């Protein structure tokens, strides 16, 4: 390309100020040409643009783009490139791309599951209390047998039809006998718990039930010779002291109801200890829903002779009552369904949180159930009884913390 010439011959006839101005302009143009030819070319062509309408792109800036950038990312950073005939979706920033879609959904699901667990646990307590104490259906063994039949039927649907968990089979006669032993303990615990609701208010029933860790520690020591730390045993003292305080000030205290409620609590603790002993091998371990599938029908068969001997022909009595009042049918079916939901939501809470969270929620559930029962059934309470219940719950919390620290120290 021929270098453009800069004519200075006409400058002699101009005034001195114009001469100096033209000279400075020419000097700048020369320097600009020498420094960057591409800039001069751009300037020259851009002047001609007005006459010839030549489309001009802006000069390319070097080292302003990272090679890994996509076309859509460049398009986002240059507004001049956004007017395209085909609209290309822009790549969102990295913090938006890395954010999981619908981040609140898992938290909402967990909250719904926990709420369902609370409703089912408290609901079955209130329904049992209403049936056994207020409605006049005084057959706790038969009611427990209905619970077991319901759990067996719903467990079959959940495992074999809905496939919530994989199906596990009983692999040996030895394993069958172990599950049968657990079923017997389970029967004893549930029957005693339902029977106690006939004589005791739900609030006091829950206060006694909160002492389960105390009996668990005793059975673990007696059966497995497992010793806890001194801190753990000290934490159990307020558990016992609180229940003694609540018992002495309970207006509706009933000795037989108190004894069967303690038996129910001890049975729950014994079942957890025995289950940890006899189902320890990987070949014999069963999922909680599979274990319920096998335990429930065994428990129903165990309860059948007891309900016939102690409570008589309850099925015929129930059918006769249903002819005059169909509400009893809905109560029994609803009660049996909620009894299964207790076990199902117990599994779901453990799956979506942890066993420790379940323990904490269980402690809070006892207090919530006590408050709800007082509001519904209007049973009298005393300040000393509330204080004793609070001391028991506090002792259970201290026990949980002591157990956690003991495990950390051991490991």
From TrEMBL:
Annotated stretches, region: Disordered: 1-29
Membrane is among the record's keywords: yes
Membrane topology, record value: Multi-pass membrane protein
Domain Sugar phosphate transporter, residue spans: 111-399
Record field: compositional bias (Polar residues): 1-25
Main subcellular location: membrane
Keywords from the named record: Membrane, Transmembrane, Transmembrane helix
SUPFAM superfamilies: Multidrug resistance efflux transporter EmrE
Source domain of life: Eukaryota
Cited InterPro entries: EmrE-like (IPR037185), Sugar_P_trans_dom (IPR004853), TPT_transporter (IPR050186)
Regions crossing the membrane: 107-127, 139-164, 176-197, 203-223, 230-246, 252-270, 291-310, 326-349, 356-377, 383-400
Subcellular location: Membrane
PANTHER family, A to Z: SOLUTE CARRIER FAMILY 35
Protein name in UniProt: EamA domain-containing protein/TPT domain-containing protein
């Amino acid at each position: 390309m021929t270098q453009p010439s800069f004519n200075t011959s006409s400058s002699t006839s101009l005034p001195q100020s114009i001469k100096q101005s033209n000279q400075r302009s020419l000097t700048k143009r020369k320097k600009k040409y020498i420094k960057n030819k591409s800039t001069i070319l751009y300037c020259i062509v851009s002047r001609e643009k007005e006459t010839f309408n030549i489309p001009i792109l802006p000069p390319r800036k070097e080292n302003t783009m990272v090679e890994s950038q996509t076309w859509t990312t460049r398009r986002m950073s240059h507004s001049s490139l956004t007017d395209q005939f085909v609209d290309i979706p822009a790549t969102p920033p990295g913090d938006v791309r890395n954010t999981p879609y619908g981040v609140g959904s898992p938290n909402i699901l967990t909250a719904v599951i926990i709420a369902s667990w609370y409703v089912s646990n408290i609901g079955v307590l209130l329904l049992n209390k209403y049936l056994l104490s207020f409605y006049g259906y005084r057959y706790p063994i038969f009611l427990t047998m209905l619970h077991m039949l319901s759990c067996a039927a719903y467990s079959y649907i959940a495992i074999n039809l809905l496939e919530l968990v994989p199906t596990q089979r009983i692999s040996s006669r030895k394993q069958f006998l172990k599950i049968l032993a657990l079923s017997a303990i389970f029967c004893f615990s549930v029957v005693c718990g339902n029977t106690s609701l006939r004589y005791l208010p739900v609030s006091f029933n829950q206060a006694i039930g909160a002492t389960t860790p105390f009996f668990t520690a005793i059975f673990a020591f007696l059966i497995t010779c497992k010793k806890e730390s001194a801190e753990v045993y000290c934490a159990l003292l307020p558990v016992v002291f609180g229940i003694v305080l609540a018992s002495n000030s309970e207006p509706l205290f009933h000795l037989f109801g108190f004894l069967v409620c303690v038996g129910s609590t001890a049975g729950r603790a014994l079942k957890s200890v025995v289950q940890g002993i006899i189902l320890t091998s990987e070949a014999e371990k069963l999922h909680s829903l599979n274990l319920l599938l096998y335990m429930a029908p065994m428990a129903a068969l165990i309860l059948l002779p007891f309900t016939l001997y102690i409570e008589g022909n309850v099925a015929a009595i129930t059918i006769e009552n249903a002819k005059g009042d169909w509400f009893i049918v809905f109560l029994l079916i609803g009660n049996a369904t909620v009894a299964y939901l207790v076990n199902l939501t117990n599994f779901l809470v453990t799956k979506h949180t942890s066993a420790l969270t379940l323990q904490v929620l269980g402690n809070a559930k006892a207090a919530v159930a006590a408050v709800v029962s007082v509001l519904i059934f209007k049973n009298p309470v005393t300040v000393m009884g509330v204080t004793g219940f609070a001391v028991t719950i506090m002792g259970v919390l201290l026990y949980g913390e002591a157990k956690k620290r003991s495990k950390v120290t051991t490991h």
